[in-house]
Amino acid sequence: MERRVRQVDAADPGACRTAAQLDGLTGQALFNSLSWSRATKCLVQAAARTIWGAALSRMSALYMLAYASAAGGFQALVASDAQSGQGFRMKGGAHQICQRLAERLGPQRVLLSAPVAAVRQLDDRVCLDIVGRSAPLTARYAVSSAPPHLLAQLDWQPPLPARKLDLYRCSPVGHIFKFVITYETAFWRELGYSGEIVSADGPPTAPGLTAAPISVCFDYSQEGGHDPALVVLSGGLQAQELDGLSPEQRRSAVLEHISRFFPRDRVLDCLDFAEKNWRHEPFNGGCPVNIVSAGAAHLMGPNMRAPFGRVHFAGTETATEWCGFMDGAVQSGHRAAEEVSQRLGGQ
């Protein structure tokens, strides 16, 4: 798998010598051709549901390899050392980044509850029609960091180029449930365990499920062991099935699954059980990233990042390093800002 990853340029996957062949395969088909061990297949399936919020069967093999290439390899996506995708978490929560940036910019520059419905480009400016506002916002240039599937839903005048629009329409967003379960003590540590669970299958734990719901579970306690907690992620089909249950049923199903690994009485005796369903967020509609379906990944690279008239495109899906992560979002923002700066004469 890593050898295949090195053959694909994350900046231009379509330039790969075997791009057409790889784009005609799903990620699952490619992986099946490289692996014969059931244990390995199960492990990768669980990883895929966490990395992309979707099964490998839903994405192009070319996209899968390009995504891993942007991280420096498939292993880097799943490992938890300091150089890998799961190496850090932010003390106090990642939402602080948005809050502090908004504070620096000030309320006059950050408009909340102002969704864009249409993008109209004129010879010398771009106009953004805002829901609930009579007058549009106008600027010489605009930068969008919205996810591809939402960009496809906007009214563009003139229309988006056909290849860019086709790529956006073939880029569905993943589906992940996140659960944070807090306890009086980190009983898993007391028992000599790390708290980490990776699960790809197993019998269902509630009516309406076809398999056990958890993809991964990690120790989520604060530094020094304070506020003992487990964080659980459920992705792909399992998350879709959980979406059809009530909150009480989801709680029961998740705790029942964890009870297969730790003492049942300790698992059920939690102080709090919080859940987040990213599918219900109106301005992303899912989590953690947009995948690209088989047959469309050759359109990536320039088509995902290329400006359209006076509109430039950022967002983690456009990144060439750590696509799908916050690092990728920052890289894409710097790139888009540089593009606009050059058009403004380097100001």
Describe the structure.
- There is one protein chain.
- This protein is an alpha+beta fold.
- The longest helix is centred in the C-terminal third of the chain and has 18 residues, at 326-343.
- Helix 3 crosses helix 5 (61-71).
- It has 3 domains: 2-78, Guanine Nucleotide Dissociation Inhibitor, domain 1 (Orthogonal Bundle), CATH 1.10.405; 99-161 and 286-343, 3-Layer(bba) Sandwich (FAD/NAD(P)-binding domain); 176-280, Polyamine Oxidase, Chain A, domain 2 (Alpha-Beta Complex), CATH 3.90.660.
- It contains 15 helices and 11 strands.
- The chain has a 5-stranded antiparallel beta sheet.
Name the descriptors.
FAD/NAD(P)-binding domain; Polyamine Oxidase, Chain A, domain 2; Guanine Nucleotide Dissociation Inhibitor, domain 1; 347 residues; 11 strands; 15 helices; alpha+beta; 5-stranded antiparallel sheet
CATH class of the largest domain: Alpha Beta
Number of helices: 15
Order of helices and strands: HHHHHHHEEEEHEHEHEEEHHHEHEH
Describe the largest sheet: 5 strands, antiparallel
Into which percent range does the helicity of residues fall? 25-40%
Shape: globular
Tell me how many strands there are: 11
Radius of gyration, rounded?
A: 22 Å
Distance linking N and C termini: 44 Å
CATH-assigned homologous superfamily of the largest domain: FAD/NAD(P)-binding domain
What's the overall average pLDDT, rounded?
92
- Return the CATH architecture of the largest domain: 3-Layer(bba) Sandwich
| Percentage of residues in strands | 5-15%
What is the strand arrangement across the widest sheet? 7-8-9-6-10
Cofactor: FAD
Family: Belongs to the flavin monoamine oxidase family.
GO molecular function: monoamine oxidase activity; primary methylamine oxidase activity
EC number: 1.4.3.-
